[in-house]
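Me: I keep going back and forth on a fold encoding question. No explanation is needed for now; the record alone will do.

Assistant:
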Amino acid sequence: MLTFNNLIYRLINHSNKNVKLLTNEFINNKEFNLDIINFNPDTLFLSIICHCFIYKEYDISYKFQNFKSIIDNNFYNKEQKECVIQLFQKTQKIYKQFCRLAYLWKWKKAKCSITHDLYMTPITCDKYYVLTILQDGIKYLFSKNDLVNIINNSLAHSPDIYAEPLSIRNPYNNLPFEKSILYNIYFFMKTNFFTLPPIFHEYFMCNLHLKVFRDNNECLIRNIYIEKRLNSNNNILVKNIHNMINSYNENKFNNTKIHIDTNFPSDILIKAMKPYLKLYYTKNYSLDITEKNKCTNDLNYYLYQFKQKHPSFGRKIIKFTNKDNKNRKTFVTFNTEYTHLVLKSYYQNYSNCHKEIIEDTEDKTDIPYFMNRPNHTIFFENSMYNMDEDEDTVIDSDDDDTVSMSINSSFNSVDTGF
């Protein structure tokens, strides 16, 4: 801000030599000596204004705060405030022109050594999806996809699941982007009609303030972290899938439990269970209570459907080549047949979905009532398979009538809160 200080100092002192003398006297002696000039209220006022902007060390925010404090001061009359406004506007206009001139000079002298994006794809500055950023005298080229990944990785940083967003940095020099660069990135995406990351828009609405952004958007950060967690390495995903299945199997009958062999191929298991794993993560980690309850019901329902449609998925199959015990050979395979789960079907009720809310009409008559609960209804997490420990209930899984009567009596004993 030294340039702005010099500009306002010269503009004030250029038209009034007494202000210059008084200003120099104040700077050198740190006190007013009105005997050196002929006292004039206007001269004193301009000198005070000059001191407010050139004597103290401050950043850009203090400049506007100081200007506002002068305008809001009731001891200054209307003419004096108008004088300050005109002086500030003129100084600010000249200052911005100098800044633009300096930027154009730096842009012309800067060199660009980037020829590939972060995915090692050739990149040039003439593409509509490429943004050129000037930082520390060097030009850097970024594609739209690179910028989105950098922004999401920084703002959605969540060590140990807790939101701790980081400053958005340049991956080539590991230096944080200045605010002016972040604004350029935001309006670059806006003006080119790119899909703007919601987390970046919320960061923009918080005036690029990391603490305010973290405090106001912790739920959004957690949801993005859940999406990123689905891209973890295979060992972590397999471990979490087994934890999810074990959690589902608790307090279930044997004919509704899902059993996965320990030697089952991990790539097939991840591909089949990844949609369910997203529901499991949301159930455990989301900060949205409504979403947690919804995913709890959906996970229980979809895993039950999966078991009914693919009862032998994950089982080991042993095949014998010959009946002769002497030359018998065995081959071990696994049952890998499954139907991929689609959580969101945007095509359903497409013609009327903008007019009214139409519930799904999927036929679920073959599913027990306690497993067929609407997604938008919140129930207690107590499963109907959980029996009251105080009651001596004995169920024979081979007797269908006994099972049905026991389930109905157990359901009637649960208070849903409605």
